[in-house]
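Researcher: Please predict.
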Amino acid sequence: MNINIQARGFDLTEGLREHTRKRLQFALGWANHEVRSITVCLSDVNGPRGGNDKRCRIQIPLAGSRDVVIEDVDADLYVAINRAAERIERTMARRLERLRGHRREQISGPVQHGRDEQPGGAEPSAATF
């Protein structure tokens, strides 16, 4: 998994780079086969004015689908990174599950059950008289 981390409006420290890298590897390590690259843009929206202005933007391109993009803003950049990583983990799980289901449907076609056939291959229950 290639993680590209960029900073805009401030110098990126090694500690911040390492925190971001570890947090994303922890959040998305399970999706290592599907996720080839991640772009993270850390920025200071208001500059020296301060306030709730540190942004973490995470973008993950997916083959056959739109990019997954998550942004979070907080006064503390570490908090913004943590929340964005949690959200990207949940979003990727949902998106990949949908893509996998869609691919299965394309390959095998929709599942159709006969009148007397039960889903899952179970036999119909016999009536006793």
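Model: The two ends are 63 Å apart (CA to CA).
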